[in-house]
Amino acid sequence: MSAMVERFGRAAAPGIARGPIHRIVDLAGLHRHAGTPAEERGALEAAIQAATEDLLLLIGAADEEGAAILEFQVAMLEDEALRAPALGAIAAGVEAGAAWSETLGEQIEDYRSSDDAYFSARAADLEDLRDRVLGHLLATGTGATVPPGAVIIGRDLTPSRFLAIDWTQGGAIALSEGSPSSHVAMLARSRGVPMAVGLGAIPENGFTEAIVDGARGRLVLDPTADDLAAYVAARADAAGQAVREAAMLTHPAMTADGVRIAVLINVAEPAELDRIDPAICDGIGLVRTEFLFSSASGLPDEMAQYTAYRRILEWAGEKPVTIRTVDAGGDKPVPGLTIDGESNPFLGTRGIRLSLAKPEIFKVQLRALARAAQHGNLKIMLPMITIPEEIDEAAALLDEAVVELAREGIAASRPPLGIMVEVPAVAIVPERFSAAAFFSIGSNDLTQYTTASARDIAAVAGLNDPGHPAVIELIRNTVQTGRELGIDVSLCGDMGGDPRHLPSLIVAGLRAVSVAPPLVGRVKLALSEIHAGVPA
Amino acid sequence: MADSETTASVLLTHEVGLHARPSVKLTKLAKTFQSAIELGLGGDGPWIDAKSIVKVMAAKAPQGTTLHFRARGADADAAVAALVGLVERDFDEVGAHVGNG
C-alpha cells in the first residue's frame, strides 16, 4: 500500500475537490517497443478498429452536425487507402505508431496547405484521427471516458480534452506542467473546476484517490484520515464563503468607501449565458469570438456569426456588450486562418494583425457585427493593437461593411470601435490611440509582453506576475490617460478576478473590471472590503 | 459476357464543393455497386477510386468543377446514373435541411 503523497504547485482555478484519479498520458512523449512487422500490423489494425468503435459510440450521443463530422472520420478510418502507406512502412520494419504518425502527418500537411479554407480546416479532423488511433496503440485509451467527478492528472491538458469531459459531477485537474494563464486554466475558472499546475513530477502508480485544492495549488494523493477531515472542513469553509459571495451577486459592486465599480463578465461561448442571471453583472466586458472559428465545419459564415452575436446581445438587453474580433494566433491556432510555423507565434501574426492580413475573412465578421448591433448595446473591440494605423484600417473596413449592408437593404448600424491595451507599445503612450472609443486592458498579454515571460511556459511562470510594478504602472498610465482624454477604461484579464490584485487596480484608478462569471460574487465581496481613497 | 464501360460527366454545383458530407455520401453510394468506379476532375483523368473517401477528399474539388465518372462492370450503367443523379440533386443536402426544419 502506498503512503499519502503531497505536491505543491501553482493555483490555476480555485475550489477544492476530491475524486478517483484518472491519468491522461502525453502521446507525444511515448514510444512503443516495436514488435515484428506482423505484430505491428496487427497492433495498428486493432487500434484503428478500436478507434472506429469509439467514434461510432460518440455518433450515438452527438447532435446532427456532430454526427456528420464523426461519420466523415469513420469513413476515413475505414478506408484502406488511409492506412496503406503506414502498412507499407510497417512491412519495411517501422514501428506501428511512428508509421501511423508519419502517414497521417503527410495527409495533414496536404490539407493544411490547401488554399481552400474548408479543405485546410480538415487538417484538424485528421489530427483527431491520428491521436485517437495513437491513443489505442499506446494502450492509454484517449477515447476512454473519464469517470464523473474524477481528478485528472497529467503533464498538460488540451482545451479540446477539457471540453470533452463531463464536469457536472465535480472533478478537478492537477498538472505536472501547465500554466495558470493557459486556455485550459481559463476554461477551468469559467466552469468552476479546481485546478493546480506546475506540480512537478507526480508519482505514477499505486494511487487511487486524490484531493485538489486549486486556490493553494495543492495535490494530495491517497489522502490520510486527517487530510480527509481537513477536506471536509475546507469544503464547509468554502461553502460559507460561497454563501457570502452569493449574497453580493445581484447588488451593484461598491468599495468600502462607497465608490461604484462596474463588474462585467467575460464570455467564451453563448451557451454559458443560459446558466447566468443578467442581474449579477453590469454587462459583458469581453466576448471571445474564437469559439465560432474552432468548429470542425470550417470558418463561420456571416449568418452563423450574426445569429451567435444576436443571441448574446438579446441576453444582455440594455446592458453593454463588448465583442472582440477574432483573436486567433499565438497559442490559439485556427485551421484555415492562422499562419503555421512562425518561430514565435506570440510575437507573430495574431489578433488584429491576422485580421488585417485577411480582410476577406475580417469583413465577414464586421458585417455580422454591424447587423447584430441592431439588437442591443454593442461595442466592437480590436485585439493586439500596436500602432494607431491599425485602428484606422479596421475602422475603414467597418465603415465599408456598414455602407455595403445599407446598399443591400440589410438593417445594420455602426458600433463604437475600441481596443485592447495589451501590448506595452500602447500602454506606454495611450494618448496616441485617442481614435479608440474605449480601452480594455488585457492584463494577461500585457503581463506576458512586459515581463517577457510566456504564458504557457511553466519554467518562467514565476516571472509572469501581473503584480509586477511595471505592469501596475502601465495600467495606471492607461487609466490616467483615458480619464484625461474622456475614454472609458476597463480591464478584462484574469487579474481583475483575483482578490489579491484588486486593491492595486482600484488604487490605480480603475473603475471597471470584466471577469469570468463564477468569480463575480468573489470580486464584489473583495471590492466591498477595499478603500478606494480620495479620487485623484 | 464482357463487362461494359460507361462514362458520364456532371457539373458540381454544391455550394462549397466536394466536401466531407457529400464525399461520404458519394463513396457510400459507389460502394453499393460491384463495378469498378472511378472519378476524374477532367475527361482525361487522372482517375481516382470513387469508393475511397481518402482519395475523393484529396481531390479537393471546388464548386464549379465538372466531375467525370467511369465504371466498368456488370452494373456500370446503373452505377454511373446513380452517382450523376446524386451530384445533380446537390447530394440531397437542400432537401435534408428542409426536411429537418
Explain how this protein is built:
The complex is a heterodimer of chains A (about 525) and B (about 100). Chain A contains 19 helices and 16 strands. With about 525 residues, chain A is of the alpha/beta class. Chain A folds into three domains: about 5-25 and about 145-240, 3-Layer(bba) Sandwich (Glucose Oxidase, domain 1); about 30-135, Enzyme I, Chain A, domain 2; about 255-525, Phosphoenolpyruvate-binding domains (TIM Barrel, Alpha-Beta Barrel). In chain A, the strands form two sheets. An eight-stranded mixed β-sheet of chain A has the order 1-8-7-3-4-5-6-2. In chain A, α1 packs across α6 (about 125-135), α3 packs across α4 and α13 packs across α14. The mean pLDDT of chain A is about 90. Chain B has a single domain, classed as 2-Layer Sandwich (Histidine-containing Protein, Chain: A). Chain B has four helices and four strands; from the N terminus they run βαββαβαα. In chain B, a hairpin with a 6-residue loop joins β2 and β3 (about 45-50). In chain B, α1 (about 20-30) runs antiparallel to α3 (about 75-90). Chain B is globular, with a radius of gyration of 13 Å. Residues about 95-100 of chain B have low confidence and may be disordered.
